[in-house]
Amino acid sequence: GQVTFAQDKFIIVQSTTSTQNSGLFDYLLPIFTDKTGIEVRVVAVGTGQAIKNAANGDGDVLFVHSKPSEEKFVADGLGVSRADVMYNDFVIVGPTSDPAGVAGSEDVVASLKKIAEAKAPFASRGDDSGTHKAELRLWKAAGIDPSEASGDWYSETGSGMGATLNAGTGMGAYVLTDRATWISFGNKGDFEVLVEGDPVLFNQYGVILVNPQVHEHVKAEMGQEFIDWLLSDEGQSAIADYKVDGQQLFFPNAG
Amino acid sequence: MRDAAFDMTASPSTLPQPNGGEPLLDVRDLRFSAGGEQLLKGVDLTIRKGSRTLIMGPNGAGKSLLLRLMHGLLQPEHGRIFWQGAPMGRQARLAQAMVFQRPVLLRRSVLANLKFALSVRGLSGKARAGRIETALATAGLSHLARRPARVLSGGEQQRLSLVRALACEPELLFLDEPTANLDPASTVAIENLVLEANARGITIVLVTHDAGQAKRLGEEVVFLQDGQVAEKGPAGEVLTNPQSEPVRAWRDGRIYLGPNTRTIRDHASL
Amino acid sequence: MRDAAFDMTASPSTLPQPNGGEPLLDVRDLRFSAGGEQLLKGVDLTIRKGSRTLIMGPNGAGKSLLLRLMHGLLQPEHGRIFWQGAPMGRQARLAQAMVFQRPVLLRRSVLANLKFALSVRGLSGKARAGRIETALATAGLSHLARRPARVLSGGEQQRLSLVRALACEPELLFLDEPTANLDPASTVAIENLVLEANARGITIVLVTHDAGQAKRLGEEVVFLQDGQVAEKGPAGEVLTNPQSEPVRAWRDGRIYLGPNTRTIRDHASL
Amino acid sequence: MSSFWDALGGAFGLVVALDPDLMEIIGLSMQVTLTAVLFACLIGLPLGAAVGTFHFPGRSLVAVILNALMGLPPVVVGLLVYLLLSASGPLAPLRLLYTPAAMVIAQVILVTPIVAALTRQVIEDLNREYSEQFASMGVGRLDRMTAMLWDARYSLLTVALAGFGRAVAEVGAVIIVGGNINHVTRVMTTTIALETSKGNLQLALALGVILLLIAFAVNSCVMALRASAVRAAYA
Amino acid sequence: MSSFWDALGGAFGLVVALDPDLMEIIGLSMQVTLTAVLFACLIGLPLGAAVGTFHFPGRSLVAVILNALMGLPPVVVGLLVYLLLSASGPLAPLRLLYTPAAMVIAQVILVTPIVAALTRQVIEDLNREYSEQFASMGVGRLDRMTAMLWDARYSLLTVALAGFGRAVAEVGAVIIVGGNINHVTRVMTTTIALETSKGNLQLALALGVILLLIAFAVNSCVMALRASAVRAAYA
Ligand SMILES: Nc1ncnc2c1ncn2[C@@H]1O[C@H](COP(=O)(O)OP(=O)(O)OP(=O)(O)O)[C@@H](O)[C@H]1O
Ligand SMILES: Nc1ncnc2c1ncn2[C@@H]1O[C@H](COP(=O)(O)OP(=O)(O)OP(=O)(O)O)[C@@H](O)[C@H]1O
Ligand SMILES: [Mg+2]
Ligand SMILES: [Mg+2]
User: Fold this and answer.
1) DSSP state for residue A6 in the 8-state scheme
2) How confident is the model at residue B93 (pLDDT cuts 50, 70, 90)?
3) What does the mean pLDDT of chain C come to?
4) pLDDT value, residue C116
5) Residue D189: its chain E contacts at CB < 8 A?
6) Among residues C100, D7, D97, E21, which one has the fewest Cβ atoms lying within 10 Å of its Cβ?
7) Is the distance from the beta carbon of residue C154 to the nearest atom of ligand 1 less than 6 Å?
8) What pLDDT is attached to residue D94?
9) Distance of CA C163 to the CA centre of its chain
10) Over residues D207-230, mean pLDDT
11) What is the pLDDT of residue C7?
């Protein structure tokens, strides 16, 4: 550790837009700060940018949802260790008119095939984020290469989840989104969840302490305290308690 | 000074008609202030149709201001200006033209300056080309037609702005020291031009500091001093036999230390 | 015309010294072109210390250009200018001052214009205040000190720019038609001011179209015509008994239809 | 920053190799920006000239509003256009959302106030010199405006270039109404934003350098044209 | 758009109720923007004046570069400043990343070229009038610049306001170097971007309207000060 001045009693968490946009942090962090006096400053950016920023040492804790990238981060020695914190799931949302007729399906791969056959508009994040990577895995499972239709029925928005949802509702396109962002999203229009419940739609969040041996100014003690609290019974139940419109957004699964 | 209340209600037709042409422009108890100071202090003036009126007086007397007001470029603070019996309007200004003391030329060639002025009056094509040619020849600027107007010499600029105004064939022409920067030959030429224009029926109002010019051109002289008319009358009389102290002082090249001079010291060393 | 090759190598000390003061400014075969035309075509001129030189000539002859070149504001295309024997530099310009034909005043008050000019010369505090007061009184502008300089009348602007230049106490003063817009009293006053300054040792170079003024002020007259010196010599001789046709034409108020006039028609109606 | 030079080299390599994807993006950037600046000038120049020339009640209010609109946040403009064009918006039938046309609309809204506000200032300064002469000549309103726009054209070039700078650099509005859709509405700035969010910071920077070079080229062309026009005017 | 009016009403309610969160955000916006504009003017005014006044080799190149830099993409500026200030960057010891100071730095880089390029044009126009008189008087370089900056001050106000507009509306750069951290670096524009990505479009728009009103208020104050200064000068 290092000497910590009063005004220095904060840590920086590099995280993704889904945790921020869903309002989870607004709920969670005051509880932690009240208890420990440690302020948590969240920088919410794309997964890739968050990992890059953390690799540069511009954060004490990394809190994202892209397991392979996270494991590589630790394997590269940039992070101390990785722990599962919570999960939620992906869903496919789309217009109630449902031009591809996928409503009510629990088979996401079959649904994607239908969408591709119908050439129904589909908005992809196209930004290499955790969500985008998950989507690409699903297309691959369906045996479809949507990039061939890029600019046609398949739109890569190259933007965050919220921006992609805005685009989707704007153009009436199906979107694969994490449930948390969707539930707290304010511009739903006539969209609703059409496909959900497929086990492959599982979305795991992990937390990593940035390696203080690589970046010596990393506030390891306070960062670890935050991680420990997230993984503790208290942190886990706080996550479970966070609800929007009566719906639980994240499901704790530490340990 | 006249009674303002009376003048405000006076209509030009009720005023005595001076002999000569009928009144073209009537100025009644004109006052004007700027920057917190009264610069014109009740000027009465009648410009008769076809006449040549010379406005004279020391620097800062208000000659240029008076021209601006008569031309409708400034709004009087008090008093009235009538154009052919009716209050001044845009129509009146279109029948007038003015050559400013400091010529304002567009950032274009000599030719384009003339073109612009004429096309504003609705002229184009052959008619315009003809007039432009005449104007250029008159100003002795034919060989400079394509030069940017801003690089002309002082005298050339003055000549250009004069023929630009004349080319518009106004009924009334205001000239503010139009020969100040001209060589003797150009001065003679411009004076002849003014007399010719006047002979064609164009009414002339000219500001000058040159007593010789005033005698050559003037019919009527209006002598301004400190924003007021000190004396007016036929040019011969006013200039050769002035009745007022300001004109006498002016003629002798003296400073008039009248009641409105703030301190004697102000002008002492001039 | 002189041989250019010779002039380029000539140093002023090898040149014959005219009687009177030593040469302050030497102009050798000066040529200048702009817009594709040669406007000065080889001018030779010596300004002696303490002298009064009048530059005269018709509009567009190149008088103002010559002043600009002598003051170092333009670079000659050919030929040389020497200041006290050495090539012109910034130092020379600081010893000179110029009153432009069209006064350039800062967008500030009359007072601030004077303040600025003097502080550029390193004056401030009491010394500056004193000089400003004198300058304002000299120009008869004391009561207008706080007025924005841009709203002054034409004559007031000219007087202001003159005293602004004088206040800097130059060794050499260029005056480009400084009384063109002045009333008779101011003209007399400015002429006296110029004579006084000259008596204090300030060398004067003055452009004018006024033959009377030339006679009153002039020692040396240089007559320019079409970018060339048509005649030069003592004022009395040149003006009363001109040897060259251009000056004779000028004196008689005629247009000189010399070899360089493009067409007769150009100037015919002027 | 050695990885930056690698990225820059790589990006230049793509340009030199005329990589079709990058060319498409650069082309669309220029097309959208130049169209937007053209329209912004068509509206902003006369508008600014009118406010700078004429006296009418509320004139200074209009001037202040134009100045304030220079601070129009791109995201807000994007949202506004999005709400107008979106499927549930009033202009939905035009089906312009997520097309280059939508991006042009957003940029026109963004750039017009800049052009208008700066034009107002330039024309107001010139008008101080010309207005009495024009009034004396009886020049009509339209003629006054066009004459001053013409005579101030060299100063107004800088104004147009300021508008170009704003448009070419802009990302907040175009990403909302264009959606940064690959092969459809992806331009330089949205690509830079995307690469940034992917964590490809060096590539993003390299693309930024290329964008700046393009802006530099456009500015150079404009200034060269201007210089030759000035020369022609004096020849 | 009735929900927009609700949102606007709600947002105004927050302003009227002096909602501490919103006040904090507005306050930081103004603080960052005004500081940035101040520095941008301190650099850009003399720089633009120098380029507009003096003849030196490469002068027109510098003018073109300044013009081109008006098209500096905010994201690129953000990245550049990020890479400089990042823990692995050369200026890491300053520990400025994710602080308002970093946002100011980014905005200064963004706004300075705008101020400088527009100043150059204004001063160049004035210099055409003054330069001979100044040369005649032997006015030194510094005095020339300051005299012209002073005499052109009313026109330059519009330039400064253009810089203010750019800074106050800017989001791309400040979100990268500031991080949009609640209570630390969250300003109006990043809040608008955040609410947009949350899909709270109406709230985002309402915040945009408030931002515009603030910009309008700032412009009004500046113009009112100007007007009273003009009046004082003529009194
Ligand atoms: N806007 C203004 N504010 C303050 N004073 C002004 C304004 N306009 C003109 N003046 C003053 O009014 C007076 C008269 O100006 P005017 O230009 O009419 O003089 P003039 O008689 O034409 O003199 P000159 O022979 O020098 O041209 C001058 O003292 C001038 O300073
Ligand atoms: N930059 C330029 N480009 C083209 N022609 C120019 C330029 N500058 C001056 N001239 C021309 O040079 C000639 C001489 O100009 P100058 O101002 O020296 O005349 P002047 O003798 O002072 O005349 P005036 O008595 O009218 O003041 C004029 O015909 C003018 O049009
Ligand atoms: Mg006058
Ligand atoms: Mg001259």
Assistant:
1) G
2) confident
3) 85
4) 95
5) 73, 75
6) E21
7) yes
8) 87
9) 15
10) 89
11) 34
Q: Tens of pLDDT along chain E (235 residues)?
A: 456 677 777 777 877 777 888 899 999 999 999 999 999 999 999 999 999 999 999 998 999 999 999 999 999 999 999 989 988 888 988 999 999 999 999 999 999 999 999 999 999 999 999 999 999 999 999 999 999 999 999 999 999 999 999 999 999 999 999 999 988 999 999 999 988 888 888 888 889 999 999 999 999 999 888 888 777 665 4
Q: What contacts D199, CB < 8 A, 6 or more positions away?
A: A46, A47, A48, A49, A50, A51, A52, A53, A128
Q: How far is CA B252 from the centre of its chain?
A: 24
DSSP label of C178: T
Of C39, C223, C262, the residue with max ligand 2 atoms within 8 A of its CB, to mutate for a pocket test, comes to C39
The whole-angstrom separation of Cα E46 and Cα E61 is 17
Ligand 1 touching residue B62 (CB < 6 A): yes
pLDDT in tens, D145-164: 999 999 999 999 999 999 99
Got the DSSP string for D139-199?
Answer: --HHHHHHHHHHHTHHHHHHHHHHHHHHHHH--HHHHHHHTT-TTTT--HHHHHHHHHHTT
Please give the average per-residue pLDDT across A220-244, as a whole number.
95
Phi and psi torsions of E170, nearest 5°: -75, 135
Q: Are E177 and E43 in contact (CB under 8 A)?
A: no
What is the CATH number that goes with domain E2-234?
A: 1.10.3720.10
ipTM associated with this complex: 0.87
Does C190 score more than 50 pLDDT?
yes
For residue C169, how many other CB atoms are within 10 A of its CB? 15
d(CA E49, CA E148): 8
For residue B90, the number of C-alpha atoms closer than 13 Å in the C-beta half-sphere is 7
For A145, the token pair is 């290469």
Its pTM surpasses 0.80: yes
Q: What is the structure's pLDDT at C257? A: 59
Three-class HEC string of E65-87:
HHHHHCCCCHHHHHHHHHHHHCC
Asked whether A and B share 3 or more beta-carbon pairs under 8 angstroms, the answer is no
Residue among D78, E3, D185 nearest A189 (CA)? E3
Domain ranges of chain B: 4-58+66-91+202-269
Question: Chain B 112-141, CB below 8 Å of chain D: which residues?
Answer: 116-117, 120-121
- CB within 8 Å: E87 and A58: yes
* Out of C63, C140, C153, closest to residue B270 by CB: C140
Whether the CB-CB separation of E87 and A57 falls below 8 Å is answered with yes
Interface residue B68 vs chain D (CB under 8 A):
yes
Spans of all domains in chain D: 2-234
Q: Which residues of B touch D140 (CB under 8 A)?
A: 120
Residues whose CB falls within 8 Å of the CB of residue A119, separated by 6 or more in sequence, listed in order: A149, A152, A153
Residue D93: DSSP 8-state: G
Which DSSP category does E163 fall into? H
Q: Looking at this protein, which amino acid is placed at residue A16? A: T
Give C118 to chain E, closest Cα distance, Å.
9
Which chains lie within 8 Å of chain C at 3 or more CB pairs, if any?
B, D, E
Residue with CA at minimum distance from ligand 2 atom 29: C60
Q: Quick one: average pLDDT of A80-96?
A: 95
Q: Please identify which residue in the block is written with the tokens 């006053």.
A: C189
Superfamily holding C4-58+66-91+202-269: P-loop containing nucleotide triphosphate hydrolases (3.40.50.300)
CA of B41: how far to CAs of A26, B226, D73, in Å? 74, 8, 54
* Inter-residue contact E66 to E117 (CB < 8 Å): yes
| d(CA E133, nearest CA chain C) in Å | 6
Residue pLDDT, tens place only, C46-70: 999 999 999 999 999 999 999 999 9
Nearest chain C alpha carbon to D232: C35
pLDDT exceeds 70 at position B242: yes
